[in-house]
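Chain A, query sequence.
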Amino acid sequence: MKKSTVAILRTSPATVLEDYHTLLNLAGYQDVLRKDVETALKINISWHFFFPASSTPPWQLEGVIRAMKRDGYDPARIHACHNRTVVIDAHLGERENKQINVVRAHGLRNVHLYESEEWINIRDAVGDLTKKFLCLNEVYPGGFMIPRCFIGENIIHLPTVKTHIFTTTTGAMKNAFGGLLNERRHWTHPVIHETLVDLLMIQKKIHRGIFAVMDGTFAGDGPGPRCMRPHVKNVILASADQVAIDAVAAKIMGFDPLRDLKFVRLAHEQGLGCGDPREIEIVGDRAAADENWHFVGPFKKMTFAGRMQHRIYWGKLRKPVEWTLKTVLAPWAYIASVLYHDSFWYPTHQRLVHESLRSEWGRLFNNWDGLAISPDDLKRAGWDDVGEAPARLTRESLKLLGKSVRVLGTCIREAPEFAARKRRRRAACSCSEM
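Chain A, predicted structure.
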């Protein structure tokens, strides 16, 4: 049986576009992703504000699109793909993280799954595969909905290298979480590891080809996927094996994937991929794969919000509180999350953002629009000049507070519990008019 392969390269702004093209081909993406079917680029937005390592950076998206165009993939069959989370505004996120700039420059379709796509019940989509689920039948006894457009499509996941307060690390497998589960996916948090394994089973059933490209130019340590300490690490990874790429990234961060990452161990045991780094073939820069960054992980210095979430899902608050998250009372948790992360944590930790903006990658991000490369110029290796760092720190507390208030309003307005009641009222009105 052929070994799982993970490609890894060191990179820099001057070579990042060429490096992404090399990376994808080292990992054999053309053998996995057919050119005659649609390919979804599953963008990661873990925070609608820019925070290094939290969300897909523009050069990651740019590098993948240019590599595909260079290798003969038709841009008309490539589209960006976003999910919605009740505490994350995807439209704000794609602007603040400059992903929409890249999508528009290349003329790609930009799909927001919750706004334009038809959804289908999982039992109609995958049939008897549901009998093999580890947990989702218990979480959703009536089944759940997935986007119909995913069926038969290629998908490329675009995660970043970072830690996570629920899963220790997050990457390719977790990137499917938002797209394949509806807005009540927080119901799965108590069984998050088993959920990720079930979702990988689904992906293997519905997608024509699955591939992952992980950006570690910035890498995040601490209570991710938001409140992290970013580090410049200058590595990028790719693989057709979602389990293997998550395992290799975890090992580089300093974790034992089979011991520390239950979702990797379960997927490895289920034969859904290889989670043992000793059995994974590394191509590219082997020395980079042997690094140990000694990340402390998400649990040693958890935020107040993180500690409360752990107590609700796995600790003393589970019995008295967790049930509320499955009722119309659930929006209290969404409101609390937005107030803590957007209105308090982010404005009070702007120093971390500004320190990152002084790095080469931060300067490239800050000056992105002025450094734009023609979408037809597929020979450029990268950016030799990333421009100047921000001249001085600017106080943006009031501006950020205003944005967080708008996100809070959207969060309340689009909470699935309220939306369900609106749908029932509309249905009742329609029936009464007949």
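Residues 5-302 form a domain with the Rossmann fold fold (CATH 3.40.50). The longest strand covers residues 209-221.
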